[in-house]
Specification:
Elements: E1 4-11, E2 25-29, E3 34-37, H1 43-49, E4 59-61, H2 67-70, H3 73-81, E5 93-97, H4 101-112, E6 123-127, E7 132-135, E8 138-144, E9 152-158, E10 161-165, H5 173-178, E11 184-188, H6 203-213, E12 217-221, H7 225-228, H8 232-236, E13 243-246, E14 252-256
Parallel strand pairs: 3-4, 4-5, 5-6, 10-11, 11-12, 12-13
Antiparallel strand pairs: 1-2, 1-14, 2-3, 7-8, 8-9, 9-10
The protein binds zinc ion (2 copies).
């Protein structure tokens, strides 16, 4: 892991239950960081299936607050509360999200009381404000996308590589801008073209975004059952000339890091 970035797809489905696909969650791993993008139902279990303890997480970034993207925040916080922090001295988890994160947290604390509370040093929450954020070891740029009011997409710039996440989104220029020249673009593909739904992407729209942005590899993600029954790659490839991969739970995609990074 010292010379590569790895994406581990923990959940590639939606809220409609599927034995093969858990709700949205993707882990971005570098030699230093364990960055979770969204944490829908099943994330805690999927982490353990992949031999990752929640104490290893360093960041969570939420794209929006639909339950299929955020609902495992409750078990993750409760799990961390029951972990022995002393044995993991120096561990810090920083949880970020768009506007509404602190309100969401207040609601959870009203429902669950102190059972979700960890020490303020160990777990901290932040709402996104500045569009460009420099963290130790990576840069994050976010943009508003078309789905829920607060919905955002993310562009991570790490060690000379660019990895983008649409979250849930319809077709929009902001997503093309975020994905510009990305090494990997993880775009949602909720439904096939014939059942396209406003505020979500279909394979042709995801292909158009990837082509317009000049991304090097397109990973389609977040499939409702009708999308699973459709030939998404064939449709997307009519609009995008690069490599297309369908995400699966447990799938890993690695990017080598340039030697100088
Ligand atoms: Zn959503
Ligand atoms: Zn969703």
């Amino acid at each position: 892991m010292t010379n590569q970035i790895e994406l581990l797809f923990l959940g590639t489905g939606t809220i409609l239950p599927s034995p093969r696909r858990s709700c949205s969650a993707t882990l971005l791993r570098t030699h230093k960081e364990r960055i979770l993008v969204d944490a829908g139902a099943g994330t805690l279990l999927r982490l353990r299936e992949n031999h990752i303890h929640p104490l290893e997480l360093t960041y969570i970034f939420f794209t929006h607050y639909h339950p299929d993207h955020v609902s495992d925040l409750v078990p993750i916080l409760f799990c961390l509360r029951n972990c022995s922090w002393e044995e993991n001295e120096g561990h810090r988890l920083r949880i970020w999200g768009p506007r509404g994160l602190l309100n969401h947290l207040r609601g959870l604390e009203q429902a669950y009381g102190r059972w979700l509370q960890n020490s303020g040093e160990e777990v901290k929450f932040y709402e996104l404000k500045r569009r460009l954020l420099d963290f130790p070891g990576f840069r994050l740029i976010w943009g508003k996308v078309i789905h829920k009011n607060e919905s955002v997409g993310y562009r991570f710039e790490i060690a000379g590589r660019v990895i983008c996440f649409s979250g849930d989104s319809g077709y929009c220029q902001e997503l093309i801008r975020l994905c510009n020249q990305a090494d990997l673009a993880v775009l949602e593909c909720s439904h096939p073209d014939e059942h396209a739904v406003e505020g979500h992407l279909s394979p042709s729209l995801a292909g158009k975004i990837a082509e317009a942005a000049g991304v090097k590899k397109l990973i389609l993600n977040h499939f409702y059952p009708d999308a699973e029954r459709s030939n998404l790659v064939e449709v997307a490839s009519k609009f995008y000339s690069g490599e297309i991969v369908l995400a699966e739970d447990g799938m890993k995609v690695s990017l080598p890091v340039p030697a100088t990074a």
